[in-house]
Amino acid sequence: MTEAILQKKTRNTLLILLFLGWALGNLDRYVMNYAIVHIGKDLSLTNTETGLVLSSFFLGYALMQLPGGILADRFGAKRVLLIAVIVWSIFTGLTAIAWGLGIMVVIRFLFGIGEGGFQPSASKLITTYYPKNERSKVMSIMLSSSAIMAMLVPIISAVLLISIGWRAFFVIAGALGAIIAILYWKVIPKDPVAVKTEDTPNIKGILGKLLRMPFMWSLVISYFTIYAVNWGLNSWLPKYLTDVRGLDLLSIGSLQLIPGFIMIVSMILSGYIIDKIDLRISKYIGAFFALLLAVFLLLMFNANSITLFIVYQCIVTFVMTFVVLLLPSFILKNIPAEYSGSAMGMANTGGQLAGFVTPALIGAMVDAFDGSYNAAVWLLVSISVICVLAILSIVKKDENIEGNIA
What we know:
mainly alpha
């Protein structure tokens, strides 16, 4: 399969669809971080069990990243995208029937399996249908929907989880997924037909070469570390603000509008900046921002007022978002469309494994230290420092990626 750049109007329509799909996926994902407060009470979960529920999604999501990319490369991005939306919608709806810890973990795991095929196949669509100088911008706009959801979900959660309950909410979210699936089926262009020659590498050959590339392993570690901080914060911040700062969900929702807005601005700006700047320079900016992340995480959790906490959280959000946007740009601009699904799946596996490990680990640490979050904070700070080193290790000698794979 080769690049098949679409007309601008069609590219814009495709971008809107990707934006809406990613928005819904993140709505389903983020709401759990607030619903778990009610779910934990209804199902009598400990902090360790709460962490297990939050992490179960990420285990399924992580395990599906590489297979999702390989399937998108092999059978087409549209097919994988459709299946991803259908499967995650089914298991989002089934979350409403969970009656205990075991079934909740299984359902959230399968929800993760469904959603796991979305980003690798969406990345393949971007590398196939968009010119290289637009790809970071397109990715940033698509991912900005997650920032919008991060801003809106606290308010949505405070209103709907109280008024209709968490079970009814997940039924509605599943129904919305069915609508998105129909739009994808009707509107997204058919997958381009792959033209194979005797020189075209097969999936096994592509995967083998990707696994032998230091470039890819640097990205895997970078993804793991930045997403460990990202999902550690997203998963536990509502409960931290409730347990330690004494806030209710409505207050948390109102306050989180501010860093949510900062995330949206950061995502959109980051995409434009990354498209304009050489990745060699962006890499050093990303490493510097990861270092700032470690510093301001410490300041945030040691802030002596909620106002100061939110100020530091806004800075944390801005620098972390730039790094999150920078990392996929190395793949979007260096890996050819034929292999972009597999490459993105491999890199994103690191990020989503972090999403599985970190929430459960933080929950266990909070239980182990009698409700104290101090050890968890130092964990996130240490991971941020490792992220600095991982980004700096993305070596330039691998810039001729096409030549290394072909």
